[in-house]
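Next up, a chain.

===
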Amino acid sequence: RKLTTVKSGVSGFSSLLSVVVNYTDPEALCTARVLARQIQRRGKVQVVCLESPKVTGSSGDITLVVLSNQCLPAVEFAESVVRSISSGQHLIAVQADQGFVYPGEEMYVTMTTQPGFFSGELSVPTHEVVGCYKALLGILALRYTPAAPLGTL
């Protein structure tokens, strides 16, 4: 599985806004692309889509994480969330579809005890992924709709 990172930099500002999504999910990918276009139009921001699991930026950057069905087991998605939190980025969850289900404690236990939960081999410890997922998913995600006001984001 791969991941798409949509990076937006505002000319004249030092901030960077990234949109992270599991690109094997067509609905989530479309949501990320529409969201990136809306940000570009509203903020006059350059937007570049990269098929890469790396999220770059300095501490204090904001990352929108697009939650979709089956995003949590995707290795690149998990590693990007860990990298983003570890580098001091602020994460905001955006729910791409109604198929995303917030995990209960039993899913976190399964992540740490059941080999094969993730789509491949993690390069970070599983307990770090679980901790970062709990931090990210500890608050409700913003529900994304094309008509949603971008000022909220």
User: Anything to note?
Assistant: The CA atoms of residues 7 and 18 lie 4 Å apart. Strands lie at 3-10, 16-22, 45-50, 62-67, 90-95, 142-143. The longest strand covers residues 3-10.
